[in-house]
Amino acid sequence: MKRASPRHPSALIASVPVFLFLVVPTAIVVPVAFNRSRYITFPPDQLSTEAISGFFGDPAWMSALLASLQASGIAVVVAVLLGGSAAVALHGRTFPGRAVVTGVIIAPMIVPAVVMALAFYQFFISVGMVGTVLPIGLAHAVISVPYAFLTVRAGLAGLNPALVRSASSLGAGAFSVMRFVYLPVIRPGLVAGALFAFSVSIDETVIALFLQSPSATTLPVKMFTDIQYNLTPKIAVSSAMLVTVATLGLLVQVCFTIRRRSIARLLPLTAAADQTG
Amino acid sequence: MKSPTPTPTTTPSTPAAAAGDERRGSIELRRVRKTYGNLAAVDDLDLTVRPGEFVTLLGPSGSGKTTTMMMVAGFEELTSGTVLIDGKPVDRLPPKDRNLGVVFQSYALFPHMSAAQNVEFPLRMRGVRAGERRKRAEEALARVGLAGLGDRRPRQMSGGQQQRVALARALVFNPAALLLDEPMAALDKRLREQMQDEVKTLQRALGISVLFVTHDQDEAMSMSDRIVVMRDGRIVQEGAPEDVYAHPRTDWVANFLGDTNLLPCKVLERKDGVAVVDLGSWGVGRVRDLGARGDTYAVSIRPEHLRFVDAERTENRATGRVLSSTSLGATIRHRLRVGEKDIVMRELSAGTRAGRGPDDEVSVGWTQDEAQLLVLEP
After folding, report:
1. Is the backbone peptide bond immediately before A59 cis, with ω within 30 degrees of 0?
2. In this structure, are residues B375 and B297 in contact, taking their beta carbons and an 8 Å threshold?
3. What pLDDT shows up at residue B341?
4. Residues A12, A14, A20, CA angle at the centre, nearest 5°?
5. Is the pLDDT of residue A6 over 80?
6. Which of A191, A192, B53, B295 is a good FRET partner for B138, with 20 to 30 A between their CA atoms?
7. Separation between Cα atoms, residue A33 and residue B327, nearest integer Å
8. How far apart are CA A47 and CA A41, in angstroms?
9. By C-alpha distance, which of B92, B65, B80 is closest to B33?
């Protein structure tokens, strides 16, 4: 069966509208952020950076940005540590209930956000953790753990289990095994997991809304509350910023993948050239 | 790639000589057992590898040979029994403290490190300074014929080269003994034979004890000082390769180690290592006897131990008919019918008398020492 090559002109023509549909709404916020008007309008009638400097000069928006960065910082660190070590611990091990453990780790991906939000709200109230970014960061960590877990697990799939035994027979303790055997293999997975965790946390709104307080309002929550009574271009500025951050994150990941692929593509050739027995 | 010649110019403190202790380099297993649920993977195993000895655990898959090695290395816990290395019990020592060089079937080289870094790894774990590490790794690589290839990554090396790196890495820290888990299984036949010779030469030069695991009887025959044949978690026979081959105790061992003709017999008399047996239509003959006891007996004669004889000249002799003769190059394989029994014999092409064709009547004979009384396993 002959399949349409992705380079076929018709495939290209068909993909353009899809691409536009996906990208244009996101891209529109960027010019809006450069609008001079006091309201959100499109197309912008006069270009200026007034709204942007306004955004960075506004303490309320700045504290929202800081809260977001703090929450996602906590989420990234906790999720990578927990998800990564869970993946390493489960690697190459079989025991009854392994599937259940894996299911519990991945569950936050499937449970509806609003259900999680309510659960977190009740939990953090009952333990008296309110009014700071910490609960938001921890909640975001919970929903980010599956991403870190899955990306690290994907990296470990290619690991030869004999490497661990080999390292310990050569004198490596648990720490050295982690450093010399696991870490080089899972590093790309950790980076990917951290990027995922960051992007999950930075635009998470539902849980952050439930756990918000005047001293802990994240960027998306601030946008959501402002938009209801005060349609300033600062909202567009923060959206544009989120889009930029997400795009940068994606680019970093693409670079990682391309670099690894090109190395992998070169290696069999050099290995084949050396096949002299 | 250059043909590697292991040249141990700087005799790297041969384990046996380094310590005054005469048990340095020995591995002892005492009544070692390993059970998974009700299944005994290894059952009351007693085994000693003497310093400098090359001992092979030979058996089919599931015979417990790899489990045994993994218990020595410390990767599997013993259900009961004791393992001693250098004469000291190691049951409480983790693998990293057992000081054994292990080569795995997959070589298990660290893919993100160069060959030299791989070889330096065990020294690094032992806190050896970088300069000395580099020097010793270079020496070790040169010893396995890989001088100058230290900068390569494992993926840029052929299977044989990777195996040499694994070997250098397992030897560089002067381990008490070397454990080799089917290290040749992934190589093609020619390279495998070359590596067998090299490993054997290296082992002799270093005087290091080796515990080798394989299911390949040719490999076991060509490399070992002693073969330990395992089946179902137990040792069925052990001894020098040629002894085990020539004098199998059971039909299973005889068949596992090459081809043989099994002739069911009745034992008439056993005395001083010789048995007089009634072979039915083959008549009465004298064969070697190791004293193995069982319910039913047979005589095993290897195909190459049968030869054509003139009638009346040999004591152990039978008359039959040639069914077919096949040339295998260096040897010729004859299928014969003697009485009701089909047997196989093999003779060198070089000494063959011409003109023996199908249906010719022939006499075949064997000597007493080449025929072995053994127990037929139920």
Report:
1. no
2. yes
3. 81
4. 95
5. no
6. B53
7. 89
8. 12
9. B80
- Cα–Cα nearest to B325, from B349, B358, B361: B358
Query: What is the distance between the alpha carbons of residues A40 and A234, in angstroms, rounded to a whole number?
Result: 9
Q: Is the pLDDT of residue B18 over 70?
A: no
Distance from B170 to chain A by nearest Cα, in Å? 7
Whole-number Å distance between alpha carbons of B153 and B114: 4
**SS3 sequence of chain A:** CCCCCCCCHHHHHHHHHHHHHHHHHHHHHHHHHCECCCCCCCCCCCECCHHHHHHHHCHHHHHHHHHHHHHHHHHHHHHHHHHHHHHHHHCCCCCCCHHHHHHHHHHHHCCCHHHHHHHHHHHHHHCCCCCCHHHHHHHHHHHHHHHHHHHHHHHHCCCCHHHHHHHHHCCCCHHHHHHHHHHHHHHHHHHHHHHHHHHHHHCCCHHHHHCCECCECCHHHHHHHHHCCCCCHHHHHHHHHHHHHHHHHHHHHHHHHHHHHHHHHHHHHHHHHCCCC
Q: List beta partners, residue B324.
A: B335
Cα-based torsion angle of the residue sequence A16, A21, A24, A25 in order, rounded to the nearest 10 degrees: -170
- Residues B203 and A19: their CA atoms lie apart, in Å, by 65
Output the six-digit token pair for B205.
């030069």
Classify residue B250 by its DSSP letter.
B
In chain A, the domains with their CATH numbers are: 61-258 (1.10.3720.10)
pLDDT digits (tens, 9 = 90+) for A104-150: 999 998 999 999 999 999 999 999 988 899 999 999 999 999 999 99
| Cβ contact B364:B336 at 8 Å | yes
Q: With both helix axes pointing from N to C terminus, report the angle between A183-202 and A233-273 in degrees, rounded to the nearest 10.
A: 160
The number of beta carbons lying within 10 Å of the beta carbon of residue B238 is: 17
Cβ–Cβ below 8 Å for B156 and A168: no
The C-alpha of B182 sits at a distance from chain A's nearest C-alpha, in angstroms, of 13
Query: Phi and psi for A131 in degrees, rounded to 5?
Result: 85, 5
Q: B126 and A271: CB-CB below 8 Å?
A: no
Instruction: Give the separation between CA A27 and CA A42, rounded to whole angstroms.
Output: 12
**CA angle (B265, B268, B269) in 5-degree steps:** 125
Considering only residues 166 to 225 of chain B, which have any Cβ-Cβ distance to chain A shorter than 8 Å? 169-170, 173, 190-191
CB contact under 8 A, B158 and A184: no
pLDDT above 50 for A158 = yes
Structure confidence at residue B331 (pLDDT): 85
Among the ranges given (A90-94, B78-82, B100-104, B149-153), the one the predictor scored with the smallest mean pLDDT: A90-94
Which residues of chain B lie closer than 8 angstroms to A171, CB-CB?
A: 96-97, 122, 125-126, 173
Structural domains of chain B ordered from first start: 15-245 (3.40.50.300), 250-375 (2.40.50.140)
Q: Which residue of B has its CA nearest to A173?
A: B96
Q: Are B222 and B196 in contact (CB under 8 A)?
A: yes
CB contacts of B74 in chain A (<8 Å) are: 168-169
pLDDT range class, residue B118, cuts 50, 70, 90: very high
Which residues are bridge partners to B30 per DSSP?
B82
CB-based contact A198:A72 (threshold 8 Å): yes
Alpha-carbon separation of residue A155 from A99, A182, A198 (angstroms): 19, 10, 19
How far is the alpha carbon of A21 from chain B, nearest alpha carbon, in Å? 43
Minimum distance, in Å, between the CA of residue B44 and any CA atom of chain A: 25
At B268, give phi and psi (nearest 5°): -95, -40
Q: CA B135, B137, B140, B144 torsion: positive or negative?
A: negative
